[in-house]
User: What shape does this take?
Amino acid sequence: MNAVGVEGVWKFYGDYPALRNVELSAAPGACLALIGRNGAGKTTLLRTIAGFSRPGKGKITIFGNSPRDTETRRLMGFIGHGISVYDELSALENLTLFGKLYGLADPKKSALEWLERTGLERVKDGLVREFSRGMRQRLAVARAFLHGPKVLLLDEPFTALDDRAIAVLQRLLREALADGKTIVMSTHQLREALELATHVALLNRGQVAFHGPRTAEMVADPGWVYARYGEG
Amino acid sequence: MRNKILYIIGAAALLLLARDMYLITGFPAERNQGAIFKIIFFHVPMAITALTCAMVAFVASILFLITKKFQYDALAVAVTEVGLAFLAGNLITGSIWGRVAWGIWWAWDARLTSALVCWLLYAGYLMLRNAIEEPTQRATFAAVFSIFAFIDVPIVIFSIKWWRTQHPQPVFWGGGSFPPDWSAVFGWQVLAVMLVGVVFTAVRLRQEQFQREIDSLRRMAHAL
Amino acid sequence: MMAFVRQVLVIMSKDLRAELRTKEAINASLSFALVVLLLFSFAFDPSEETTREISGGLLWIVFAFAGTLLLNRSFARELENDCLDALISAPISGAALFLGKALANYILVLAVELIALPLFGVFYNVRWTSQFWQLMMVIALATWGMTVTGTMFSALTVNIRLREVMLPILNFPILIPALLGAMQLTSALVAGKPITADNDAWLKMLIGFDVMYTAVSVVLVETVLVGG
Assistant: This one.
């Protein structure tokens, strides 16, 4: 069974189709990089897969189930453009909060464990408001990994990150892949993404222009897919 | 085809209105209130039409939330706008009647006050729509609000009725009598105003469709 | 069921903790209540007997305005870092999220009201304690109505232009029956007259309003959060 299945998905803004008959899949353990120009529909697709909005036509499946099922949501971790943690709460409070919402056995223990893994244990009681940008992003990463998701959905994960956060994220993603987890990420940073990716999908105006395994040419020349399948 | 039907309905409405006007002017002045009483032939049909519009908007909003088809959203916004126009007509004619009968424009009559509250409710619906950019979100949020507003209508009517009965006041249309031969004309007049509402709604519906097409073309152009 | 209640409480305490840490909204709301109470005393002679008769009305206008300031913050708080995304992707129902946020708002609005109430009694020389428990019941019922529709509309207006203005424009007309009932009952109660068969229709209306809008909100909130 596919970890992520996108079956003939259309998504409309009014009458305008932002996604047109998108057909994609990711097997367990795969890392799918969604690439494409701005406005090609990468974020829309990723948010639809995450269950933030319903497709107008077609079906999204996560291990065979709808992403809106409560049990399915436990399997997914999402990192979007925002950090999705509260400025007024401390790092520990934030992670404990989400641990409770995910029904973890010991939310505080998991929170402390992830603060350590992201190098934030020293500032665990500091309010997020006072954090530097890099620290906020590492906390966002910890929040998404906290409940041990099997499918990670990342929207432009490397874009606003500082070097240290990129290193932390890449290490975690590699560990996750080694663990058999599935990753779908949209990205402009082809170099960072293609290093990790096992598969690549190119979106062009809401349609899949290319979908296939990552090849050696792509790593050698990140512009290769665009040159070959993009509209140039 | 659609155009022809619309013209036929419009023509029928105009003919009916003209005939009713002719008959109404021919009626003798009412015993206690004089000629102003005849404003009821416009005031009440407009209220009935507005209430019908609210009901249609409610049903269309529920259908939109279930089916996500934009035709229902267009219908909801079209009837809400038309209903607001008719409700405004109802408020104005009621106020004119009040000026003649009681000497003041606004006497906090229970029915007029309820109508004003409902007008504000649905004006909020249009303002909410105006403020939301993305069509799917606009339609969804507006439908939710329309359901909230419709549920409120009976509560508003009852609560304002209780409120006013605690303060003795002249009863609207009080003392007026309605001869039986007026009833038939009244019925026709309700139909005429309703038909005008149908024509307005159909025109507005088409406009809404064009608007959606324009919006989607604009998005397509931006995506190029 | 237990899990649902626990999720509601987690969301509620999260909102309360975030608000109490900065106290931004609650301070604004309190000072606003105070200012409006003062302004009314200039509009109506506070020592007149007639002012006492309309005091229920004054009080609820203060509550409604001050409450709006708190309700406005409710979903705005989720928007700042896209926190709403994380809540929507968490394995909790929209209903649990909604009720948690509504309860947090309810507690905050009630707190402001209970601070404003004695001040009102002092300023307008009203003996509001004479029907204390009945008055508390009216305040509890009408405030829940205000909070439940306000929380829902806070979600509807969260990412639109003119958010702060839109919330009262949507919420006040819907609330007119509830506010009207609350004003009628409060005026009678602070004048020392208990609720009787004469005016208990208002109480029933308030209960009906609360039940109806709570039910509709719980049913529709998922649609609002996950949209189309």
About this structure: Chain C has a mean pLDDT of 92. The first helix of chain C runs from residue 2 to 22.
